[in-house]
Amino acid sequence: MTIERKFAEKLRPGFAGKLNILMASMTGPASSPAFYEKALRKLHQVVTFGPYRDRAFWAEQAASLKEHAFYREGAYEYWLDIMGRLAKPCDLVTEKGLVNMAELKKKLPQDFRPDLFLWVDQHGWNLPVNLESLNCPTVALLGDTHLHLRNNRELWLSYARTFDFVFLTFNRHHMKDFREGGCPRVFWSPAACDPEVHCKIPAEKIYQVSFVGSTYAGLHQ
User: Fold this and answer.
1) pTM score, two decimals?
2) Calpha distance 131→40 (Å, rounded)
3) Residue partners of 60: CB distance under 8 A and separation at least 6
4) Any idea of the CA torsion for 23, 27, 31, 34, to the nearest 10 degrees?
5) pLDDT per residue over 84-132, tens digit each?
6) Residue 219: its pLDDT value, please?
7) What is the 3 state secondary structure string of 74-85?
8) Of 199, 152, 191, whose CA–CA distance to 171 is shortest?
9) In sequence order, what are the residues at sequence separation of 6 or more whose Cβ sits closer than 8 angstroms to the Cβ of residue 7?
10) What is the DSSP letter of 216?
11) Which residues in the chain belong to E strands, given as ranges?
12) Which residue of 15, 85, 192, 205 is 20 to 30 Å from 8, comparing CA positions?
């Protein structure tokens, strides 16, 4: 039976068990992996791995806020306080960069055999390789394809080809690039909100228009 068939069996209607999901994550409470992890843990058994981002990292990132247009005084201190307190290490802390999955498998709990592997776009921070050693379906969720395809097109297309399934969360029109780049299963899965976090709050409306996006000069001159 193929890997896909075995996985499909566990997703058949009426299946009440939990999937064992191995997830390449990141220690950032406001990053995409944190929200995927939170949702998946409600239904399945999840083990995460990734590098630890300590307070020094968040201080450096907070300092970069000052390079944004419309910087508001106090944002540096607020960001550093929140992220420094809420960031937590993954279940398995690994070094930044490439992670050999054959070696990582040896560190997994004895009773944990991955049914599914999930990698959420983390640029060069957490790059699992040797995925075939996991012997389970592998999924990549790519976000910043507008940067990947512009800066290192062939590198990211070749990396995406190592996964069984590729989902794009931002740029739907880039599906064509990945399909033509050799990825047989490419889908669009737009980024969503967490209703427990991104909800209506009791506050007075003081602005008629709000802007959600980036004003970082390094990317948007």
Assistant:
1) 0.87
2) 21
3) none
4) 50
5) 899 999 999 999 999 999 999 999 999 999 999 999 998 899 999 999 9
6) 76
7) CHHHHHHHHHHH
8) 191
9) 115, 116, 136, 137
10) B
11) 20-24, 45-50, 92-93, 97-100, 116-120, 126-129, 138-142, 165-168, 186-188
12) 192
CA distance 98 to 24: 11
Q: How far is CA 197 from CA 68, 75, 82, 202, in A?
A: 25, 20, 15, 13
What does the DSSP assignment read for 10-49? HTSTT--SPPEEEEE--S-TTSHHHHHHHHHHTTSEEEEE
Residue linked to tokens 């790519």: 142
Residue 182 corresponds to which tokens in the numbers above? 């050799």
**Rounded-to-integer distance, Cα 117 and Cα 131, Å:** 9
Show the tokens assigned to 139.
């999924």
State the Cα–Cα distance between residues 59 and 77, nearest whole angstrom. 9
Which structure tokens are listed for 205?
A: 């409306």
176-194 b/e (C-beta count within 10 Å ≥ 16 → b): ebbeebebeebeeeeeeee
Count the Cβ atoms, other than its own, within 10 Å of residue 92. 16
Please, what's the b/e burial string for 125-163 (b: 16 or more CB within 10 A of its CB; e: otherwise)?
ebebeebeebebbbbbbbbbbeebbeeeeeebbebbebb
